[in-house]
Amino acid sequence: MRKCLNCKNDVRDDDIYCRNCGFLIQSNRNYIIVNIFIVIMVIGIIFLIALFVASYMIEK
Amino acid sequence: MKCIHCEAEIESDDNFCPKCGHWTPHGYDFLKDQTNIEMIAHGESIKQSNRLVLLMSLFVIGCLTFTIMMFIRGESLFLPFSYLKKQWNNYMYGYNTSAIKTDNKYDKIEINTYEDAISFIKKDFQKQTFICREDNELFKIEDELEKNYQIPNVVFCDMPYEEASKIKKVIDRMYFLFPNIEGALTNITITNASHEYIARFQPMYQFVNIEEDITKYNKVNKTQILLNSYYFLNEEMLDNSIQSTVGENWYVEDATWESSIAHEIGHYISFVLLLKENKLANITLVNSSNYQSITNVLNSFEKGNYQQDILNTALNNYNTRYNTKLDLTEFALTISRYASEKDDNGNLIYDEIIAEAIHDYYLHDDNMQSSSAEIIKIIKEMLK
């Protein structure tokens, strides 16, 4: 039996939503892909900010 | 017990339907109960957004950030990339190189008039100038040369101001000595050419619609003088004399790095003479009506017959005036070793003799070699 990532309640195999908190239960692959993209987006935004700052710092 | 929304089987203590995620009566009671407020506020007891929403939010924030930064900085936002590219190239080659790309080519471009062609040539560099060091004095020199002598593009990107200033003086003097040579030169540009040459005149660089059928698309050529970044962007090179690189007495006496540009303008002047002879102002815009005559001019320039005629006349005049019997090689050798340079077939390169005579005239004015003076007389007469 799996655990809900949101409230840690037990989730039955054929449940789509957590019975306790209503969290959408997804496959592990789905979570991994979404998390990877979140990390990429965060790095991308940090990179953009760094690029913006660096563009002022470079000797013109 | 059944879900009120999808009628799936649910347990009596479920807060949400496991199939459709809808509230159950138990979940509704749980929320309404004031004693559960703290647990609800903590965020673990009610349905929350999944991480996909976070991802979408980050994507929107990223797009907005990029748009705002582009609005503020424009293409300067990418300066760090060109800076890193420059640093990388400098590290790889071991000397300062230019980030300007001079060998772009374009196809299937509609060019109808000479003005379109010039505008396209200008645009090619306008897209790149943001990568150059912002030196307003240097930009001013480039602007003045462009305006004063109708040269669409002068790009000294990243060149030390003092060096650009010396080059400007050379160009100013050359256009003063030969005032009727405007209109055919499209570019004076810094470029990367390893150690191949110091500066180079290129009568035709096929720029637009090279492979296209001339009946469908007009073509655009650049006529340019290229300055090698290996020398002109590296002050430690310029600190040495040009003779230490090319050898003593290779160029005419007193030659400098900058005066080698006078030599290249000498090639350009020789080319202008040929254009005038063929009643062409330039070879920038090629269409079906001038295609053949431009091809003939370029073939003629390569073969050197035209330059040979000028030199034979100058040689005859020299031999008559000074009562000598020099042949063309001896005549060339009186100017410089470079003037008497021969190609792989052992033939004199006639255009180099003319360019060196002009170089001599630039450096020594009326004190140039008598042989150079005979050549200059003919050239000046032809340019009238």
Task: Provide the spatial order of strands within the biggest beta sheet of chain A.
Answer: 1-2
Low-confidence stretches of chain A: none
Q: Please give the alpha-carbon distance between the first and last residues of chain A.
A: 61 Å
**Alpha-carbon Rg of chain A, integer:** 19 Å
Taken from the alpha-carbon principal axes, the silhouette of chain A is rod-shaped
Q: How is the main sheet of chain B built? A: 5 strands, mixed
Structural class of chain B: alpha/beta
SSE string of chain B? HHHHHHEHEEEHHHHEHHHHH
Q: Structural class per helix/strand content of chain A?
A: mainly alpha
Tally of distinct domains of chain B: 2
Largest sheet geometry of chain A: 2 strands, antiparallel
Low-confidence stretches of chain B: none
Biggest interface goes to:
A-B, 34 and 39 residues
Coarse morphology of chain B: elongated
Task: Characterize the structure shown.
The complex is a heterodimer of chains A (60) and B (384). Chain A has one helix spanning 28-57; strands at residues 2-3, 10-11. Chain A has 60 residues and is mostly helical. Chain A has one domain. Chain A has a two-stranded antiparallel ribbon. Chain A is rod-shaped. The mean pLDDT of chain A is 86. By secondary structure, chain B is an alpha/beta fold. Chain B folds into two domains: 95-285, no CATH class; 304-384, no CATH class. In chain B, 50% of the residues lie in helices and 8% in strands. Chain B has helices spanning 25-32, 37-42, 51-73, 79-93, 114-126, 136-149, 161-177, 229-232, 235-238, 243-246, 259-277, 291-303, 305-322, 328-333, 350-364, 370-383; strands at residues 153-155, 187-191, 199-208, 219-228, 285-286. In chain B, strands 1, 2, 3, 4 and 5 form a five-stranded mixed β-sheet that branches. In chain B, helix 7 runs parallel beside helix 11 (259-277). Chain B is elongated and about 125 Å long. In chain B, 37% of the residues are buried. The mean pLDDT of chain B is 88. Chains A and B meet through helix 1 of A and helix 3 and helix 4 of B.
